[in-house]
Amino acid sequence: MAKLSQEDLLAQFEEMTLIELSEFVKAFEEKFDVTAAAAAPVVVAGGAAGGDAAAVEEKDEFDVILTGAGDKKIQVIKVVRELTSLGLKEAKDLVDGTPKPVLEKVAKDAADKAKEALEGAGASVEVK
Question: Could you tell me the pTM of the whole model?
Fold first, then answer.
């Protein structure tokens, strides 16, 4: 089998949907017994005035979960397609199978924008 260059691999990943890429990462992690999680920053809690100050880690990755399509299902499917670049059938299946995650591990601002767009189309959405 010919060895693929990084550019070839990246070109292949560009063509994948987010769901396909997520499934690939899971399979890669299982096959090679690794974790693709980003390195967590080291937090050193210094002894403040009380000494028992706990460092609170701020959440920086959010999941946008579609909990219901509402009355305007077609509009919701269109918004899901815009957000995920899924095909029509995949987006319809996602909307029909609620509750399902639309976006996973995205930044707070991206999650808020996706929630706003989906709610604007008439869907009920939850951000975790």
Answer: 0.52
